[in-house]
Amino acid sequence: MIIVALGGALVGILSSGTGMGGGFLVVPLLIFLGKDVKLAVGTSFIFIFFAAASALAAHHRLGNLEWKTGLALAVGGLVGAQIGPALLEQVPDAMFKRVFAFILVGVGVWMLFSAKNNGA
């Protein structure tokens, strides 16, 4: 459990500093630790809930919040969050891993090239 807690701390640092949430690292970590895909996804939300609440408080103290946009995203997220688990139940583990990896690589490539085009 110490390794899991240390992994959680690392993911907390990365997710609160990048705004990428924690699932993109927690889910692969839990799968690596031998958890079933569906259990890994569901369990990751415990981490995400508490890490997001803590990061929200920290960003609020720093004045890094745009409440109107964030709340609008949250409304859509509440609806989507009810649909996602039902869809996940229909997807085989191997397919989920491939789609998840494709999304991560796609976002990474997009960010790499968008940063380059913005003079970063």
TrEMBL record:
The chain crosses the membrane at residues 37-58, 70-88, 94-113. Its main location: membrane. GO terms for cellular component: plasma membrane. It is found in: Cell membrane; Membrane. It comes from the Bacteria. Keywords: Cell membrane, Membrane, Transmembrane, Transmembrane helix. It is a multi-pass membrane protein. InterPro entries: TM_pro_TauE-like, TSUP/Inactive_protease-like. Belongs to the 4-toluene sulfonate uptake permease (TSUP) (TC 2.A.102) family. This is Probable membrane transporter protein. It comes from Candidatus Nitrohelix vancouverensis. The lineage of its organism: Bacteria, Pseudomonadati, Nitrospinota/Tectimicrobiota group, Nitrospinota, Nitrospinia.
